[in-house]
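Lesson 9: reading folded outputs for more than one chain in a single document. The general rule is that every protein is listed as its sequence immediately followed by its structure tokens, and records are never interleaved. Here is the first one.
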Amino acid sequence: MRLTAKTLISTPFRKLLVLITTLLVGSSVGFYIIELRPQGHHDYLSAIWWAVVTLTTVGYGDIVPASTSGRILGLFVMISGIGMVSTLTGNLASIIVENRAKRRKGLLKVKLSGHVIIIGWNSYARNIVSTLQETGLLTKGDLVLVNSLAPEERDALAFDLDMGNRLHFVYGNPAHESVLHRSSPATARVVYILSQAGLSAADADQQSLYAALTLRSLALKAPIYSEVVLAENRDHLLRAGVSEIVPRGEVASMLLGRMGKTPSVWPFFQGLVGSRNHPSSLDYRLLGSDEKAMTWGELIRTSRSRDGSLPLALCHESKDLTLQDMLDEGSALDQFILELFTLSGQQTSLGQQGPSIMINPADDLELTAYDGLLFLKAQSTES
């Protein structure tokens, strides 16, 4: 009982609410006993109505005390109400302003579902947001940025992205669980981990690794895509539960190598994924049940005749990966390991196994085992 009472008045705002409630109950009971019951009225709701109207100093005048005792009670309630209601209004305004300030500073938990999370920030991050907007992931969805940018940098970024209330900030070190928890990763649609600007390559990868380990315990279902600076840290991030990893500079170096044979590789790549003034031609969709009954050659002919699109690759979707998938059922040692995990109550989920693709297979390949399709959208003759 003591703990409950102590919790009830733990803050000044709660103390004020308790005082107002006590005054309302006491004045309602007093008005009922002094005024209504002697007159033969047994309507306690009228007593509550009088107490609220008097406490808030509204004073409708539909119910008024007739006795001296009732008027004294009314004077006490009115005088008390002026101070209490004014203080309550000020406290409510202060709480609203404080919450807005905390939200602007990234100190409050965002309560979202189906949102996109970007952890860390660097000079390439703006391109990721632009691509997400182009592909439709942020058309109506929310974006949560987890980083330790200064307030003026966050304000400039919010102005640049122009997403209004759909942009949220979570301030702090992404390696800390309490910080990542505020971004609601358990209900996120996808999570990106970027190498934080201003850190050395080793420190940036270490922060990404800590963030990945924490994320995988908080978000078992959401796919996690990460950037890595040092190629030797790629395997560490994969073991931490990251779905896919892109080493920084790897794509650029491969493109530069291909350009040695023909410089047309670069404008082709720009048109493929979208860059600067080149809209992306690459898109993805799930295969329909009728398409799964086709062969690759039949799919190409059907797609070209239907909308002019050109199929490029078949995809296996990501799937949940568990410890059972990695262990050999015929091995006594593997079965013993699995039993230890089961008996101890530990999770056997290992995150998600990344997607796999088949690029431009033979025409007679059957599509039953595949889930989706990467294809090029048809371009108008004017572009």
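And here is the second record, again sequence then tokens.
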Amino acid sequence: MTQHRSCDRLAFVVTVFALALAAMLVASGVRAQSMLNPEYTEFYGKAGGEVNLFFEEPRFAGQDNHSLSAFIEPTFYAEWADGDISATFTPFARIDTADSERTHFDIREAKLDFVADEWEVTVGLDTVFWGKTEAAHLVDIINQTDTLEDLDDEDNLGQPMIRVGRQFDFGTVQAFYLPYFRKRAFPGTGGRLRAGQPIVESAERIDVKGERFVPSFALRYDCVFGGADIGLSGFYGVSRDPGFDPIIVQSSLPGAQPQIIGLAPVYDGITQIGFDGQFTDDATLYKAEAIFRTGQTNLNGNERDYVAASGGIEHTLYQVFDNADLGLIAEYAWDSRGRDATSTFNNDVILGARLALNDEADTSFLLTSAIDHRDEVATVRLEAQTRVGDGLIAEIEGTLFVNGKDDLLASDLQDDSFVRFKLTYFW
């Protein structure tokens, strides 16, 4: 299976970085015997299960109606040299009853962090998030998205990297060397929330010499001035967002039309310049993100430079009743490629509300809707959670796809509105 080959490559990368970790510990004056006896250790993490219930019958053959799954994500943490050197290891595993592809394993973190004065160095696998806006995460590009977990682009695969950062009086500068590219995984034929045509990962193409071991590079500058939090970033390497080429088979029957039997992911070599910012004015947050990207192919398979931007406000009303706080969200996301964009956020208004009850159970609700006012396609999402015991969190997530029949990206999901019940134990 491609998943097993991917795990083999990942194991190789982890081994290399483990050797680098040991070398850095020795170079930092930590003796070999001390490596086995850190000054501080901690073991924490989470595990849980979920039920996914879909409102309508499957749209495509082979899909299951509902699914059960379980996951575990433990973290092992250790420190040496009064905390100047630390190691973190976070594996992740999920088992799913409906989709064999969603049954997967990943290493989110396997890294060494080294701190010396104003310098910080990270070696290993890590997850890095950039961005400010609620819905469209435009500038976030270091990690590959784990689409097997959810559609919200907030779950990431661990990325092998060397990160060097330095703090200055005028802000923080970080440089990233990313030696290995991680492809995106997609739901299998038995899973919901998938494309109508099967994604044939074995037919993938990386349009950069060196394929997976081609390096990518990134640079980021962060600063805070008064109430403004600003980030500037640059990326050069393999795009984390794939395009797709149809896999066409010509029939041997006379007069028969060629058949599309699947889609092959295509990963382009790109350059991206990004900006993200947030300004805090008492109870109101003003947020914005923007990117300029070259080298990316669009939905029609044509390479086209483009600009994308998102921005909006979040205003909090404190103690609207009892002790509860209500946050009101309004954003707009735009992509210069229009209907040829590979993102669903190409001309969308995002409206939402976040309610925090501030009770002993930390109960909260988040309701958002993304509406494409050109095509009148909408996605409505509800997230609610509360603590039901010591370390136990109960969650409900629901997503409703509205009027996606005539939209190329949304039409495959029009029958996949669902509700998810999730129970997670934290230790």
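What the second record shows: Helices lie at 2-27, 32-35.
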